[in-house]
Design goal:
Length: 93
């Protein structure tokens, strides 16, 4: 019973922290200049050049470094947001 309680708590915690990462990612993405070139979609959705979360990671970092100057953590949040919303690659975690 106690274990069950702890698991529920842990689960709730994981869920909220994941959710807030994605929310932060959305805000970062919306506030940065990304939409000047990307609009509300990203290239890969149509032509599917990207095949994995790792490849998406590389792309997000490249654009983030050039156009936004985010911290590592924020870049990670944006990656999660974009993946959740557009790409839907399996999360390795
Ligand atoms: C000046 C224009 C420009 C801006 C601003 C820009 N990008 Fe990009 N981005 C590009 C171009 C061009 C590509 C395509 C590169 C290629 O296919 O080789 C690209 C590719 C990408 C991709 C990969 C898309 C795919 O599925 O192939 C992602 C993800 C991405 N950008 C994210 C971002 C984010 C996040 C920002 C905001 C920090 C941003 N970009 C700002 C021009 C831009």
């Amino acid at each position: 019973m106690r274990l069950f309680f702890l698991l529920t708590l842990l689960n709730a915690f994981l869920f909220t922290s994941l959710f807030s990462d994605i929310k932060n990612g959305k805000e970062m993405y919306d506030e940065a200049d990304c939409k000047r070139c990307h609009d509300d979609y990203l290239y890969g959705v149509d032509h599917r050049k990207l095949k994995s979360l790792d490849e998406l990671d590389v792309r997000v970092k490249r654009c983030a470094v050039s156009y936004a100057g985010w911290f590592e953590e924020d870049t990670q949040d944006v990656l999660e947001y974009l993946n959740k919303k557009f790409y839907k690659f399996e999360d390795k975690k």
